[in-house]
Amino acid sequence: MAAPPSSSSELFDASDSGGGNAYDGALSRRAKVALRFMRNRTAVVSLAVLVTVVLVCFAGPFVLGQDPARNDWTALALPPTLEGGHWFGTDELGRDLFVRTLVGGRVSLEVGLLGTIAACLIGVAYGACAGYFGGRVDAVMMRIVDLMYAVPYMLIAILVMTFFGREFYLVILTISAFSWLDMARVARGQTLSLRTREFVDAARAIGVPGRAIVFRHIVPNLLGIAVVYATVMAPGVVLTESVLSFLGLGVQEPMTSWGVLIEDGAQKLEAMPWLLLGPAAMLCTTLYCVGFVGDGLRDALDPKEP
Amino acid sequence: MALLEVEQLSVRFMRRGAPPVHAVQDVSFSVEAGRTLGIVGESGSGKSQTVMAIMGLLPPNASVGGVACYEGRDVLRMDRGALNALRGERIAMVFQDPMTSLNPFLTIERQLTESLQTHRGLPRREARLRAIEALERVHIPDAARRMGMYPHQCSGGMRQRITLAMALLMKPRLLIADEPTTALDVTVQAQIVELLREITRDSGTATILITHDMGVVAGLCDDVAVMCAGRIVEQSDAVSLFAAPAHPRTIDLMNAVPKLDAFEEVDRG
């Protein structure tokens, strides 16, 4: 924040007190965000780890050339070993857990990513509109959200799967259809306070139509909170998939996901703790990194950050 | 005919389970092109709500009565599209607090070019040039560099200049300034008052200036309307008002301006 100038001549020198350098104006907004993000070492490292996890999950099984469903009858329920080639161990059917974790990661990453993105897009737009237009529009829009909260998503999932078959994209669709509700509420609440700020009145006073105000003035101000909230809800989305899978609605054997593997591992924790160890470590690492990246992104998106 | 003619304007705020609040009652005034009308009053006297009603910026629970004719068209009964075409293009507004009237997430350039793109659909390059021109007009040095900055990188006085540039960008015929100097410190206030005077003199813009500061009124206004409890209690040209204030409220407001005569003049050496 620029300090109040003590004399009129200082007024014109206050430009750099925000911490920006003299070439600030030459960079595009996107470049500035990228630059600020790059300065945050934790976030950059986390992003690198995330990218590695994604690459390994999607390319790893091909490189290893192993079928996640292949049974190694010589190595049933084997604890993790380096020399045996089963780095995460095997389950009671002799399937290599490392490969299964990687393959399962594809499902979980897809669900987590798409579910969260859908939540951000729908939730932020919906909440911002409800909050900005207010009155009856707001009342109707938020009652719809309340209504959807009241509908058990499990029931909808079951109905969808029964009518349209057990398709993987339907799992993502169902999860996305419910994951945006919380985000909409958060965005609406934030919009209610933004709406009373003078810059919104100023935009209205220069004749900017409502829709443009929502998307040009309100939404950018919501990005920071949306990113943080998205990192908070990503674990929930991944776990929802595992619940659906557990009930036989999500992915089916021999396909798997982190949620399914963890569910399975948790049940056999005392006999075979390594069943839980590998997948849980991967999930935790991913979620940690998502959190740090989200933090870094929030800071980078805030123009007030130096 | 005057540029803006307001007659019997009243604003009521409806409340659930309580009688409505009469914020503005039977207010009438007119503004001619090239003249500056000062609306003065203490806080809560309804001066801001009067112009908010004209700009169509009142919250939904407000009900507006009376007529406000801009070039013969009643702005109070205009549909949203027509009003949006008028706002910014013909009538512009400057807000009280430059700290909050600029969007913290948009660069100065984006905020300035918004009205050009909304109203004229100008291509970006041209809008940018026009915006730089507008910044130079309000005496912002190094305007081109300033365009890429965010509001928090500018001081309060600088931001108020920017909002002023925003308002003047479309060369409006009516400028409404809602306490444009209240949130600024005195030295900057003087600069903004000087700037406003220069702009109204050069462009022939009609101005409505809302303030509680009689000093600002004395510096800028041709005509004055004094408001109290939602009504105009005294209305005349500035010279005769200062010569012979009639209403006790007017006198109160005049006496409220701190005077330096009480001290001996300090020689700056």
Please, could you describe this protein's structure?
The complex is a heterodimer of chains A (306) and B (269). By secondary structure, chain A is mainly alpha-helical. Chain A has one domain (37-65, 86-301): Orthogonal Bundle (MetI-like fold). Chain A is 70% helix and 0% strand. In chain A, α10 (258-267) crosses α11. Chain A is globular and about 75 Å long. The model of chain A is unreliable at 1-25 (pLDDT under 50). By secondary structure, chain B is α/β, with parallel strands linked by helices. Chain B has two domains: 1-79 and 176-257, P-loop containing nucleotide triphosphate hydrolases (Rossmann fold); 99-169, no CATH class. In chain B, strands 6-7-8-3-9-10 form a six-stranded mixed sheet, with helices on both faces. In chain B, β4 and β5 (73-74) form a beta hairpin. In chain B, α3 (108-119) runs parallel beside α6 (156-168) and α4 crosses α6 (156-168). The termini of chain B are far apart. Chains A and B meet through α8 and α9 of A and α2, α3, α5, α6 and α7 of B.
Describe the structure concisely for a colleague.
By secondary structure, chain A is an all-alpha fold. Chain A is built from 11 helices and no strands.
Instruction: Describe the strand arrangement of the main beta sheet of chain B, using strand numbers.
Output: 6-7-8-3-9-10
What is the percentage of strand-forming residues of chain A? Answer: under 5%
In CATH, the homologous superfamily of the largest domain in chain B goes by the name: P-loop containing nucleotide triphosphate hydrolases
For the largest beta-sheet of chain A, the strand count, sense and barrel status come to: none
SS summary, helix count of chain B = 10
CATH class of the largest domain in chain B: Alpha Beta
What would CATH call the homologous superfamily of chain A? MetI-like
- Based on Cα principal axes, name the global outline of chain A: globular
Mean pLDDT of chain B: 88
CATH level 3 topology of chain A: MetI-like fold
Number of helices of chain A: 11
The span between the termini of chain B is 52 Å
Per CATH, what is the topology of the largest domain in chain B?
A: Rossmann fold
Instruction: Give the number of DSSP strands of chain B.
Output: 10
Radius of gyration of chain A: 24 Å
Assembly state of the chains shown = heterodimer
**Model regions low in confidence, pLDDT < 50 over at least 5 residues of chain B:** none
Number of domains of chain B: 2
| Average pLDDT number of chain A | 82
